[in-house]
């Protein structure tokens, strides 16, 4: 679940411009993790090398998916559909788990005048004060850049986040207004490497003969 939260925190709502690949490093109470990200146009794929069995996340044609293996069967979960089902079942606790660390508001975003180099790019250091949806206040140091690829990467993450929550992220909105993308978010994540290499088109294809979440639920109810 921490990988999903990482994706939510990477948001910036800016138009996609080109293709690329990146390696992101995240840190949480559960430990450190690496995320391999590929994007082309409006499509995005997120893989987790340290937990390959968890599958991958995909943004395809404006729809968000999670692709994983369950009991030897490939399972494709539509994130918007999953949200609808959780809401219809009154499972507010499950949705709260997905969005508990998502920003609810931003109190301030101010440049410190300092600079920091990350993944070979020089960024500006900012101080961000924000409140999450659980009502907790945060004060984090961000490293931001107006580099096109950094902005494209943030745009793709924001698009995926919106397939889950159905609403824009306040941090994304603030970055959009400043024309910036994110190189580092406190000690939660940083871009370790960035490339303009175009990923293979096959990376963004949904697996054939996969079971959907609705299929799985139907099978469970029929037993």
Name a few traits of the molecule.
223 residues; alpha+beta; 6 helices; globular; disordered N terminus
Tell me briefly what this model is.
The chain has 223 residues and is α+β, with helices and mostly antiparallel strands. It is built from six helices and twelve strands.
Number of helices: 6
User: Order of strands side by side in the largest beta sheet?
Assistant: 7-8-9-10-11-1-2-3-4-5-6-12
**Order of SSEs, N→C?**
HEEEEEEHHEEEHHEEEH
Shape: globular
Overall pLDDT confidence: 81
| Helical fraction | 25-40%
The chain-level structural class is alpha+beta
Major beta sheet summary: 12 strands, mixed
Q: Whole-Å distance between the termini?
A: 29 Å
How many runs of DSSP E, i.e. beta strands? 12
The low-confidence parts are 1-17
Task: Provide the gyration radius in Å.
Answer: 18 Å
| Percent in strands | 35-45%
Structure description:
The chain has 223 residues and is an alpha+beta fold. The protein has helices spanning 2-9, 79-88, 92-99, 148-165, 170-178, 213-222, and strands at residues 19-28, 31-40, 43-47, 56-60, 63-70, 73-78, 103-118, 121-132, 137-145, 181-185, 189-195, 211-212. A 12-stranded mixed beta sheet has the order 7-8-9-10-11-1-2-3-4-5-6-12. Strand 4 (56-60) and strand 5 (63-70) form a beta hairpin. The two termini are 29 Å apart. Residues 1-17 have low confidence and may be disordered.
Give the topology, please.
Blueprint: H1 2-9, E1 19-28, E2 31-40, E3 43-47, E4 56-60, E5 63-70, E6 73-78, H2 79-88, H3 92-99, E7 103-118, E8 121-132, E9 137-145, H4 148-165, H5 170-178, E10 181-185, E11 189-195, E12 211-212, H6 213-222
